[in-house]
Amino acid sequence: MSHWIVDLLLNPDTFFREREGHEAGLKFPLLFVLLAGLAAAPGAYVVAGMTGPLLPPEAQSYLGIVMAIAVVAAFFSTIIFYIVFVIVFYLLSLVFKGSGDIKKSFEAVGYGYLPLVVGYLLSSLAIIYYAPSFVFPQVDLTTPAGAEALNQVIASSPMTMISSILGILFMLWAANIWIFGMRYARSLTLRNAAITVGVPVGIYIIFQISALGVL
Amino acid sequence: MRTLWICFAVFLLLLPAAAAAVDGEENAARVTVLGTQTDPTVLMPGDEATVSVTIKNTANQSVPISSARLYTDKNVAVLDSPYQTFGAIGPGNEATFTFRVKASLREGIFYPVFVLDFRDAGSLRYPVPVKVDGTEPRFSVISRPDSFVKDKKEIVRVSVSNPRPGPINGVSVVPSGQNLEVTPTSAFIGALEPDQAGEVAFNITPAEETDLIFTLRYRNGDNQRSIEVPLPIVFSEDKKRAEIVVSGVEVTTEGGHYRASGDVTNAGLEVAKAVVITTGAPAMPVDPNRVYPVASLDPDDLANFDVTFRVENATEIPLVIEYKDVDGNTYSSTAMIGVSSTLPAPGEGETTSFPTTAVVLVLVVAVIAGAVIFYSWKKAKENEK
Which of A178, B12, B23, B384 could form a disulfide with A112 if both were Cys (CB 3.0 to 4.6 A apart)? Predict the structure, then answer.
């Protein structure tokens, strides 16, 4: 068991090469995606709880519901992103005349979620660790200036920065696995597979960095 | 013999006259004084008054009267004598003689003498009691504010009482003074019987420290008199006035300006109306909350405030609180708030400083991820061969 996981993480080319002729197996890929969603949930739960003081007094009783919605949203957004990534990679591979069952693409991208399980888990831990030291500014969220100020404070906080940087690093690791996975799932050259995966992931990372206010 | 006849003739001549004289004396003796009256009943020193003496003829015949006089006593001067001649008073009739008198400056009961001269008899003498009492009405301030404040309306209640043995009339109080508004301009109490009191209230709005003069005007009979009572108006701090206290101030930055929020509490004993909060120089109020209206604050009431402003190179700025009292007088107070504890503007890097453990974690992850990617590509290249 550990052997194929080690291969998946350290030598994905060999891992996917060995599975190229086999039927797509989605058991582990989907398990990794679900684990990634579960790993992202605690962070979302804590962040939602922190926003309690910002809610108007009449909405304080709904804080529990808000936190539950945040957990569910974090879990399902992970699954949705998984599906979106697969579809985008699949469509981009068509440009390079890629061929292969879409199930193989689902399998390849799902396996790539293993580093993201660790990444989301570390991000959640970082949020849980630094949340108590985070101070929300006393701003009126109904005004554009107030909302902008809140965004700036959140984006520039160590909690958000650490969480985002860890997310980007593990996303790069996952993208590395996806490149080799899509190479064999869609019969692409290594260069074309890198473009197929690199462009959307690059855009995603640029978006993440810009959200931090760096760009 | 002839001498005897002469004497007898003279006796016959004098007999009717003697008989008439005896009748006049008897009738005059039946004229009595029914009573006397002074108006006012009790004079004050220097007062003028009227003294009335009522007589009655209880005889069956009319009694001729030459004159009726009231003689000046050393403390009661008679000002006129209108009854130098008088006819007769019929049987059973009454007559009243009225004289004007003036009291001296001494107090006591004096007895100017009333003299009624009869034509056919002697005279009737009757001392008339005239009471002179210098006791004046009492004027007292029964309620006034603990302290007067410039341009603040205050209520002053005054009382006028009559400790005199006689009534006083036309009692009124007229307040006056420089640079102050008084309503009503005067108050009429009317007549005050002995041991009675009247009360009036005035709204006083002083513009400066001055003496408020209450003039008590009254009449004792026809004598107009007045008393002036000063009430010094000295400004001092109103112990009951509203006092706005600022607490729980939090200053944050947002969108290029500062936002100060906190609580204001009325720690005074009177209501503070139209409370408005803003910032003073060197701070410059900016939108959205240049000025924050809090409305009315009852004593011990608390309200939130939220003001926005810009300021440069300052660690403290004044928070200006303006409010009005129930009379519309405006008050202003200032509380200094610090802006050094504010969150830095994005880019200043105060809160973006990374904890060491986080930096180490990120570096470790970056190194591992980098190494893994490098290793996997190296393996891929080997696999190609």
Answer: A178
**Structure confidence at residue B3 (pLDDT):** 57
Contacts of A152 in chain B (CB under 8 A): 346
Burial class from Cβ neighbours inside 10 Å (0-12, 13-18, 19+) for residue B270 reads: middle
Residues 6+ apart with CB under 8 A from B337: B246, B249, B251, B260, B262, B316, B317, B318, B319
Q: What is the DSSP string of B241-305?
A: S--EEEEEEEEEEETTEEEEEEEEEE-SSS-EEEEEEEE-TTSEE-SS-SEEEEEEE-TT-EEEE
Q: Report which of A154, A126, A129, A159 is spatially closest to residue A139, judged by C-alpha positions.
A: A154
Q: Do B372 and A176 touch (CB under 8 A)?
A: yes
Confidence check: pLDDT of A88 > 90:
yes
Cα(A109)–Cα(A88) distance, rounded to whole angstroms? 11
- Residue B373 has its nearest CB partner, among A135, A153, A176, at A176
Q: If DSSP codes are grouped into helix, strand and coil, which group holds residue B36?
A: strand
Q: Minimal CA–CA distance to B42: which of B173, B189, B223, B227? A: B223
Residue B285's contacts (CB-CB under 8 Å, 6 or more residues apart) are B278, B279, B291, B307, B308, B309
Residue-wise pLDDT tens digits, B156-194: 899 999 999 989 999 999 988 888 888 888 889 999 999
Per-residue pLDDT band at B22 (split at 50, 70, 90): low
Say if CB A193 and CB A187 are below 8 A apart. no
* Token code pair at residue B334: 């200032």
Please answer yes or no on whether B383 and A13 come within 8 Å at the CB atom.
Answer: yes
For residue range A103-152, what is the model confidence (pLDDT) as tens digits? 999 999 999 999 999 999 988 888 888 776 666 655 556 666 666 766 66
Find out whether A6 and A15 touch, Cβ atoms under 8 Å. no
Chain B: closest CA distance from residue A5 (Å): 13
pTM value surpassing 0.85: no
Distance CA A48, CA A66 (A): 7
CB B180 within 8 A of CB B233: yes
Q: Is the pLDDT of residue A44 over 60?
A: yes
Per-residue pLDDT, A91? 93
% of residues, chain B, pLDDT over 90: 19
Residues in chain B with CB shorter than 8 Å from the CB of A123 are none
